[in-house]
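Hello again, I could really use a second opinion on something today. I owe you a coffee for this, so here goes:
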Amino acid sequence: MIKRLITFVALFAVTLTLIPFLSQPEQADAASVTNQGLYKIINRHSGQALEVYNWSHDNGANVSQWTDLGGDNQLWRFVSVGSGYYQIINANSGRALEVYGWSTADGGNIVQWQNFQSNYNQHWKLEDSGGYVQLKNRHSGKVAEVYNFSTSTGANINQWTDLEGANQQWTLVKVSPSSTTVNSTIVVAAGQVYDGKGRTFIAGSALGDGSQAEGQKPIFRLENGATLKNVVLGSPAADGIHTYGDAYLSNIVWTDIGEDALTMKAAGTVTLNGGAAYNGSDKVFQLNAGGRFNVYNFVASNAGKFIRQLGGSTFKIDVYIDSCDISNMSESIFRTDSTTSTVTMTNTLYHNVGTKWYNVKHVTEANNTSY
């Protein structure tokens, strides 16, 4: 195993930086895990934390154990994908825990990869085991373990037949970062990257109360070419996120949708990859300008519409939905008044969505499942 190239000083600085953001931890069993909040995953045998090695953001980066330092690469979000399974998303990278190469063999390696919600090698069931939790892969049926009962830092995490070993049992510790109240919209400038590091942002009264009242302000404003990642928007969320031109968003979670979760305010290509949105009385995403809107690997539940084009508008917007789970939309998945706008939906689960396509004239679908 290659030794970690990090100094004691750097570790100490990282630890000090993170301490203010973490509230008192609480242990969770399988039934109490929610889509909201972050968790440390601690091995019963070694007492060490599951982490992405060396803070990597790369596909295929190895997952190992290390002394619990509370770093973002040791924090994980559980996102339900239905049928009792979760994706396990790293707070630092926004990538999902998976069995590499779809292996079904004992010893198959566990890594991180871009989250594809339809990939069963990224689905994990949480099973209680003697006061601890096992992580069972949906594709292979095997459980995550620390290889060979190692207690060493950097020891590898792989899958193995379920033997109820202590190295296959984990403690889940909820360590939700404390919230940051935003009193003035955070502007992410053109070409810049804002990494929220999994923290929760809540709108102050100057931005709005998260109701359906018009004129509320966003917590984040993304200028053309900006990137926003690893952010949780809590309640109230005011008017969520506004984009002005091209934007890329990764691993964004709305625990409360607010007036709208995200609004395209100017033409461009906006891509949202990974995350979730819950509990809104109207739209999740509002499209006020033309271009292209991509939403991938996303969970949305309990709102009126998943996507709404500005009422009465005739501009063309191309909507692409892939590998999502959309449920409990009282009106539709996509509503538009434009005869030229299009929607393509692939590899997506949906349930209780009213009239799926409301006034949409151009629809392409493949490999979608109603449940």
